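User: Can you model how S-adenosylmethionine sits in this protein?
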Amino acid sequence: MRFHVLTLFPEMVEQAMNTSILGRAIGQGKISLKTTDIRDYAANKHNKVDDTPYGGGAGMVMQAPPVYGAYEAVTEEIGHTPRVIYLTPQGKVFHQKMAEEFAKEEDLVFLCGHYEGIDERVLDEIVTDYVSIGDYVLTGGEMPAMVMMDAIARLVPGVLHNETSAEFESFQDNLLEYPQYSRPEIWHGKRVPEVLLSGHHANIDKWRREQSILRTARWRPDLLEKARLTSKEKEFLKKHQTEIQ
Ligand code: SAM
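Assistant: Here's the modeled complex, given as structure tokens:
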């Protein structure tokens, strides 16, 4: 997976992405990250890339030519037309299934906006996917791009050393993950659930599945509606209705 980020703040993206698990994955060549500074494609000596909006109104708009120049530099380098994701609060809200779909691509280009956004004409020409990370407005697209790259990268084989850890977690089968515990066995008087110490894997799996169901019912009932539960599990859920409130 090769990530390409078109941005006004390349150092912000590089610094964050080159740490922790993603930094290691980049070091090992499992994923790569290349930032392109949109300012390098400004056609004026002050590297100005924004101007006032036609029709008036507050703020500035990122102009089409430098954004297009940065995009062309990437496509020329990789030799094909990639998916281009414009991070925008107006896009489809990002979720795990989208991350799985994007993880299949060889190259992904992230276009980060600033100010009031980017001239619509260049968006029309180059963007394939409009994606938001949630219903709130941020100052720029860099953090949303990093959120997406993090979620996508961990699905790339070899990025997580424990390969199973991306398999059984929240949003699989529309359920949230079960609660996790580690040493010590007793902390602040609270014991780790007995079943987890039993070494009985079938019972542990059953307990975890039930906890996932209860947790999803409590915190994300919207997800649970889409989950496929067996009739026994539905029965279990009914019995534990009082624990959910
Ligand atoms: N005027 C724009 C609007 O109302 O849709 C918002 C522009 S915002 C201040 C500046 C940039 O931040 C956007 O171009 C986008 O790249 C990024 N951004 C802000 N909120 C975002 C979100 N929730 N998801 C993805 N990108 C976001």
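A couple of observations from the model: Strands lie at 2-7, 32-37, 50-51, 61-62, 83-93, 107-112, 129-132, 186-187, 190-191. The pocket of S-adenosylmethionine is lined by residues 87-90, 112-114, 116-117, 132-134, 136-141, 144 (CB under 6 Å).
User: Helpful, thanks.
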